[in-house]
Amino acid sequence: MSSFTNTTNFDNLMLQTLMGRLQIRPPTNNSFLSQTLEELLFDAATLSDDDDDENKTQLAKEESRLEKEIIRVVLSGKTDSLKPNSGQAVTIGEHHICVGFHEESGSDYRVWEWHGHIMLFDEENGYTPEYIYGNYFERLIGKARGSGSGESGGVREEETKEEDKEKVTTLGLRELIDGVDSGQGRILHRNINAGSTRLI
Questions:
Q1: Is 102 part of a structural domain of the chain?
Q2: Which residue range is the domain that position 122 belongs to?
Q3: Among 29, 90, 93, 33, which residue's Cα sits nearest to residue 61?
Q4: Is the pTM higher than 0.90?
Q5: Compositionally biased, Basic and acidic residues: which spans (predicted)?
Q6: For the segment 124-176, what is each residue's pLDDT rounded down to a tens digit?
């Protein structure tokens, strides 16, 4: 029985050695999962809001570069290179990302969304794929949209008056973003609570 145990231990050692040479390792566990709520709150209170690259992880740096490149392409208007809504992955830098967008009728924004994998390498863990996703809200002021309708002017004026009344009583995301001078808006985090009351 002891020779069987020694063989198993030797096999495990050999397997670990070979895996180490190939640099294939399971991803490390997230340290946030092992912290208590108090530790998380204390850490969040002591962290600064600086956008310095020195404070970012390698994943955050790569994700930021990728996001900037996608937004740059969207703002340039040359979005054919992104193959939006095709379901095909495009290569941006060294990463493969699928990009799509959608517009809702009556909206002043086009929502660009992307997801894919970033391959990261470090000496300790080897190559690890990291799933990423993101979105960007492109403002459509002055851009062509398919909103032609053959209605008469009188009917259209009544609809405009009704929409104006609705805008006065509704304080929503569009009104908050419209206040931004840049004309472009990004939303990084969204908190939706079905039980919350609306402000009127």
A1: yes
A2: 56-140
A3: 93
A4: no
A5: 154-167
A6: 888 888 889 999 988 887 665 543 333 334 445 555 556 655 555 554 555 55
